[in-house]
Amino acid sequence: MTSNREIHLASRPEGWPTEDTFRLVETDVPTPGPGQIVVRNQFMSVDPYMRGRMNDVKSYVPPFALDAPLDGAAIGEVVASESADIAVGDTVLHGLGWREYALLDAAAARPVDPSIAPVSAYLSVLGMTGLTAYAGLLEVAAMKPGETVFVSAAAGAVGSLVGQIAKLKGAARVIGSAGSPAKVERLRALGFDAAFDYHDGVRESLRAAAPDGVDVYFDNVGGDHLEAAISAMNLHGRVAICGMIGQYNATEPPAAPRNLALVIGKRLTLRGFLVNDHNHLRADFVRDVAGWLRDGSLSYDETIVDGIENAPAAFLGLLRGDNLGKMLVRV
Known about the structure:
Layout lengths: L2 E7 L12 E7 L7 E10 L3 H5 L20 E8 L9 E4 L6 E5 L4 E2 L16 H13 L7 E4 L5 H12 L4 E6 L2 H9 L4 E4 L4 H8 L4 E6 L3 H10 E9 L20 H4 L3 E4 L9 H14 L6 E5 L4 H10 L5 E5 L1
Parallel strand pairs: 8-9, 8-11, 9-10, 11-12, 12-13, 14-15
Antiparallel strand pairs: 1-2, 3-4, 3-6, 3-15, 4-5, 5-7
Helix pairs in contact: 2-3, 5-6
């Protein structure tokens, strides 16, 4: 192959992105230099944090550049190598998604074993998504056996794993919010003790699902969900703030939470986190998750969109909540 297609950022959106935010560009397949490899991507990830990178603002990760390919987690097969460490035919995980062929330094790629699990799993349950759920629940929120856990966006890639891991680690009750009756039913099938459609009212639904209060809240949404969780939290409750997808496309300041004063009397801990700060847990994470997958006690969902040209549609669908579990593009 001599032709390579990639998705560029065509403009910076205000509010919700559209298809016009992106541009499909055809280039030549790159040639590796010393110490480099070329990877034919098989799957790429689209993630909520990417919306923030479309804004030209200072953050924990640089913004995407205009008129240049976006990037993100991807996995694929090495088709050319000028490295002694990675061979043609190896399967590697790396950070240059949003393109069919990726040129990168071999040191920036992590070889994985495709015989252990489907390669897409390394972008979901065995990858950053799984580690985010594991670290956020067990280290950031320090969940203890016997506690009640509430998870927002619980049918998503991270949230669905948080709820299951909480049960496997001894939570007494796990509650999830989701955006449709079908997703609520899926959460119950995954072992959540209670689940509700947030369109029915977050505060009222959470109060009914957690009559004895909440000890740990894993926040993927922010806004009204965070406000409801603060009201429901027990003394010395902990909140692990993973994301706030409810306001990523907002053009006005969020209306909630309006009850932050409760944090004082309840002695709550609200802590934001980034998964890369918890790589020291990777060995424990892989050991636990591999065992749970092997014995069937942990399940994961994937929503797969085919074709690099449909990556923007997959991303927009993710922001709308069209996905069940991890949203991936089969390149």
